[in-house]
Every structure is written in structure tokens, then in C-alpha cells.
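Reminder: ligand-aware prediction takes two inputs, not one.
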Amino acid sequence: MGLESSCDETAAAILAPDGAILAETVLSQEREHAPFGGVVPEIAARAHLAFLPGRIQTVLAGAGLGFADLGAVAATAGPGLIGGLIVGSQIAKGIALARGLPYVAVNHLEAHALTPRLPGMVPGGAPFPYVLLLLSGGHCQCVLVCGVGAHERLGGTIDDAVGEAFDKVAKLLGLGWPGGPALERLASDGDPTRFRFPRPLLGRSGCDFSFSGLKTAVAQTVAKLAIGALPREVAADLAAGFQAAVTEVLADRAARALAMVGERCGAPPELLVVAGGVAANQAIRSALTEVATRAGARLVAPPVRLCTDNAVMVAWAAIERLRLGGRDGLDFAPRPRWGLETLAPPGGPA
Ligand code: KG4
Ligand code: ZN
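Here is what comes back for the chain with KG4:
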């Protein structure tokens, strides 16, 4: 059983030892946070505490299992909002202690990173190494995934995460929160060439990202228009222009990452994997498909429900770790900051 409570999704899942999904549930706290225009950590922690026990009952019932049937319990132990991390990991530890089960403290980023290895995701299984673009509201990084607990950071954002930029621009355009999906819908009616926004770091070496200048450029354009409430077609053109800029930058950065790895390893990696909420964006997916194909690789984009925060990925990451002999002590403290590159392959000395 895996639990996820690091941000604003309360999720639980039960997987069979081979990774087959027996039951899963994700409860978004969007309604709780929307009035504040973003995630409020205290509200999130209280909501996790209120909802997680019920979600656990739901997946147990859905899988037709009781606590006695579980083989291990895992929770996201970081990075994320500390209140939610404490709720999820204490509940998981409580179950582990009561039932004498192994406990696995899962790194949320590694859970996203190992998702393409879930059975059925890539025929024959996703082989290491692969390049991962993690694009969410809180994270924006490019990682070479070499194995369980073996990740190399190739680059990351130097300011805003890409989802954060979508959310902030959506707010400027008068859309609700979270703004990414609404912005994408609006952009589909817009002309991406009417407003030409900057492409931060385009063509630069490495694969770092920057989005705050782009967001500012959109804000300045909106201010210059000085027309109060934006007419829908203007907002659509702004959305399309912003999305085109983000897409071009992401495609450029991904191409760099594949080339960097290709140079180093003598051949490009087989797979480019995209995960995180922003991976739901169709324009971005198709641009990345092209990038991968051009580099002789293939894009793997898990289904949207497995790209956004969920507990299936937490349970799966735990299975991968358990298979290698990894389990954690009940004294493992949740970590609000916990970079992927600090992980070690499981099974070694603690
Ligand atoms: O991974 P996620 O569910 O949660 C974390 O941030 O960890 O990602 C949520 C982010 C939000 O910023 C949301 O606006 C963005 O993903 N997002 C999108 C789309 N769907 C969700 N951004 C662009 N286009 C979308 N279709
Ligand atoms: Zn996430």
C-alpha cells in the first residue's frame, strides 16, 4: 500500500507485488485551496488528516483486502509540505508497526521518475538509463535516471517551476486556479504569433530552465494593453503566445539533455519520459514527441492520472526498492527538501 500526501492530493493505492494496480484513489483538495489561489500548507495538512484514513478504507475495500493481507506500507516522505508529509508517513508507520510490516519512505520525485517502469507502461519494461523531464507546479527538472536510487540531475529551473508559471499567467488572464488546464483550453482558440514572448535560455548549453522573465513579459504586455478586463480573444492570443514560448523552451532543453547523454554514453537513451501535471499539456507532449524522435529516442508520457500526483507511483517506487532489499526504519523523519541526487541505491549500508 502506498500513500501520497506531500502537496494537495490525498491519495492511496494498493498494488500487487508485480505492480498490478488493485485499487487506487486520489482526492484533490482543489476546492479547499481555490479560494486562496494556491495551496495553503496548514489547510492541506488538516485535509490529509481528515481524508486519508477514509481513503485507506476505500482502497482496502476496492481491492477486497484487509490490513492482514498487506505485504508492506509506503508513504511519500518528501520533498513536500511538512504537515502533509507527517500525516502520511505517521499513518503508514502506524500500520507498519501494528502489523509488523516493512515501511518504505518514498521520495516523491523518485516515485514520478520510476512511473514509466510500472507494468504495461512500456512494452518489455522501461530500461535504465532514461531521461526524465519532471514538469509540475512545484518541480521542474531534467534528470538522468540510471537506476533505483541512482539519479543524475542534468538541469532544473533557476526560478519558477513551469506549472507555477502556467498558474501565474492563468491568474493574469483571469482564469481560476490551478490555471494550467484552463490556460491550455483557452490557448487552443488563440493565435500563438500575435504576441511574441521571450524564450528564456533557448539555445544555451546545459538544460536549466527559467520562466519568471516569461511570466513578467506576459504581465507587462497585459499592463500595456490597459484595457481592464481582457476580451476573450485577446486572452486566448496571450495564452497561445505564452504556451508556444514554454513549449519551444521545453523542447530545446529536452533536446539538449538527450544530446548531452548521447555524447556521454555514445548513444542516445532509448526513452525520454515526461511526468508531472504539466505533462498533461497536449502541445508540450507533441513537441516532446518530435524532439525524442529526432534524437532517435521515444517519448513516454504516462496517462495523465499517473503523471499528476497519485499513490500508485508511491507504491510502485516502494516495490522497486523492496525488490532490491530496501526498507526504512520507523524513525525515518519526513524531509521537506529531499533532492533526487541525494538518494542511494537501496540495500546498501543505511
Ligand atoms: O504534478 P502536479 O499535479 O502537482 C504538483 O505540482 O506537484 O502538477 C500541477 C501543475 C499545476 O501547476 C497545473 O497548472 C499544471 O500542473 N497543469 C498544467 C496542465 N494540467 C496541469 N499545465 C499546463 N497544461 C495543462 N494541461
Ligand atoms: Zn508531484
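The mean pLDDT is 94. The first helix runs from residue 30 to 33. We will return to this case in the review session.
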